Amino acid sequence: MQETSAVELAYLPTTADAVGAIRARRRTSRLWNGVLLAGAIVVLSALIQNFMGPRKSGSTVLCLAALALFIGMRVLVPTLKGRQVYKMVALQGEFQAIVDDSGVRVTSRDSEMAYRWPMLTRYAETDELFVLMTPDKYRVGFVVLPKRGVAEPADVDRLQAILNRNATRV
Predict the structure, then answer these.
(1) Is 2 a member of any domain?
(2) In this structure, which of 1, 26, 28, 49 has its CB flanked by the most CB atoms within 10 Å?
(3) Number of domains making up the chain
(4) pLDDT (tens digit, 9 = 90+) per residue, 97-126?
(5) Is 160 helix (H, G, I), strand (E, B) or coil?
(6) How far apart are CA 82 and CA 9, in angstroms?
(7) Pairing relation of β-strands 122-125 and 168-169?
(8) Any domain includes 1
(9) Is 131 helix (H, G, I), strand (E, B) or coil?
C-alpha cells in the first residue's frame, strides 16, 4: 500500500543549505565532472613536469597556479555561489514546503511556487538535504528541502519514499 499523505516542512534557509545544494547539484553534472577531471589532469601534469622533468623557470609557478585553480573550482566556487543564493532567499524569511504525489509547493513571505513532478525529475540526497532538480542537462532550477524542516524524524523516510516514487535519485 502506498502512503499518499503529504510531508510538510518549515525552515529558515541557511548558507550551509545553499552551499550544500550547489555541491549536490554539481556532483550530478557530467559537464562539471568533466571540468574537474580536466583540472585534475592539468594539476597532475604540472606536478609531474615540476618534480620529474627538467627544471624550467616558471614550472613551480605553473604548478602552484594549476593547484590553486583546481582548489578554487572544487571548493571556493560552490561556496561563493551558495552565498549568493543564500543572500537571495534569506530575505524571504521562513519557508514552508508541502511534498506529495502531485508535486512540491514551496511558500515564503513573498513567494509561492508549485512544481509538478515533470518539472523536478531528479533529486540528490545529502546528510542534511534533499535537492530536487529540473530535467535540463545543466540542472538550472532546483528546490532545496532541508531534512531539519520536517516535524518528526519519520517524515524524512516518508519524504524519501515520495521522492523515490516521483523522481530519479542521482
Answers:
(1) no
(2) 26
(3) 1
(4) 999 999 999 999 999 999 999 999 999 999
(5) helix
(6) 21
(7) parallel
(8) no
(9) strand
